[in-house]
Amino acid sequence: MRIVIKIGTSTLAHQTGNLNIRRVEQLCKVLSDLKNYGHELVLVSSGAIGMGVGKLGLRERPSDMPSKQAAAAIGQCELMYTYDKLFSEYHHNVAQILLTGSDIQDAQRRDNFHNTLFRLLDFGAIPIINENDTIATEEIVIGDNDTLAAIVAESVNADLLILLSDIDGLYTADPKEDCSAALIHTVTEITPEILALAGGSISGLGTGGMTTKLHAAQTVNAAGIDMVIANGSDPDILYSIVAGENIGTRFVGRH
Are 226 and 253 in contact (CB under 8 A)? Predict the structure, then answer.
């Protein structure tokens, strides 16, 4: 299968913003094993600003644009260094692609992105894609990596999109406030009632929430692509998700 996997900041980092070393090492090991099996992988990785915050020793994510962009510039180096080091231990090459909204909206630049992405897959590399937070402004921002992951999954005609974050999936209510909340394992249609279940971002380091994930599901489902929301705290669940097991919430594409 061709699988796009979005990795949220909360999966990569502790609340301090510093790298969760044990989890990231296990994540790269599992992804390498899936690649060895024959799956094509594309990663959409958050974490640049969060890791920059940790490396700079800041107490919280900055709110002004220049500080966010500076943190992203520092954190992106750390992020790619980590991926390159860990994947190379399993003899896999990684490639960095940084995008802005203009790269998606402009036809010529979008074609260039598609051509490069498919050639990297032909070469057997693992493309690692992030929004170019260092130069993105309000006018050219994609907004969040859930949206970016959906765009990428549609662009490469993926078989599956997996969003890993700090939540188990979509619940019937907020599980932190309602002890009777139940995990919804399968969604075959995103109705207004499903959209009404969305809440905000849980972690303080990321930007996406359930609303952006549901909109991502709408995008890829319309293209016939399944999407799964799952908790990234245990990377081994990727084996179960790829095998089609009942993990997290699966949004079924329209075939």
Answer: yes
Spatial contact of 164 and 6, defined as CB atoms under 8 Å apart? yes
Q: Which residues contact 179 (CB under 8 A, 6 or more apart)?
A: none
Distance CA(85)–CA(93), nearest Å, equals 10
**Residue 234: burial class (beta carbons within 10 Å; 0-12, 13-18, 19+):** middle
Instruction: Report how far residue 94's alpha carbon sits from residue 27's, in angstroms, rounded to the nearest whole number.
Output: 14
pLDDT tens string 75-103: 889 899 999 999 999 999 999 999 888 88
**What are 1-58's pLDDT values in tens digits?**
999 999 988 888 887 767 889 999 999 999 999 999 999 999 999 888 888 888 888 8
pTM: 0.89
- In order, the DSSP letters of 106-142 are SHHHHHHHHHHHHHHHHTT-EEEEEE-TTT--TTT--
202, 206, 207: which is closest to 171 by C-alpha?
202
